[in-house]
Amino acid sequence: MLFVIELFFMAVGAVSVILGITKYTFWEVTKPGAGFMPVLVGVLLIIISLFMIKDKKLKSEKKFEVQGMIPVGIIIAAVIGIYIVGMTFSVSFMVFGWMKFLEKSKIFKSLFVSVLTGIIIYAVFGIWLKVPLPAGVAGIL
User: Fold this and answer.
1) Which burial class, exposed, middle or buried, applies to 13 when counting CB atoms under 10 A from its CB (0-12, 13-18, 19+)?
2) I need a labelling partner for 85 at 20 to 30 A (CA). Which of 43, 62, 79, 108 fits?
3) Helical H segments across 25-86, by residue range
4) Is 33 helix (H, G, I), strand (E, B) or coil?
């Protein structure tokens, strides 16, 4: 059995614990220091990884299914889309793809929710908070 993901997260947890203790202050005189949260998160990652390894040993090996990679593909496309068409359109396209291809929603519902998501993102961040969102190469919104 391969435990690649579990070992990766265990290594990330170990690095987080080591850096939290050695590089950052773990505890100041009366309060937690900057290294407290990295140590806490690192220990939790290690514990969860151990439980995942234990759980994987108890279960039989499952075959790889391409259907399970669709969310990963949609998110990767959205991240790449941020650099091309900007944050607002990229998130809208991601919501549309998620609803249409994963949730199997009807096209009108998918379009409505994705357009509404884009409008809300633009209204909250662009107009109300005046936070500049990535515009992408196209420079739209």
Assistant:
1) buried
2) 108
3) 36-58, 70-85
4) coil
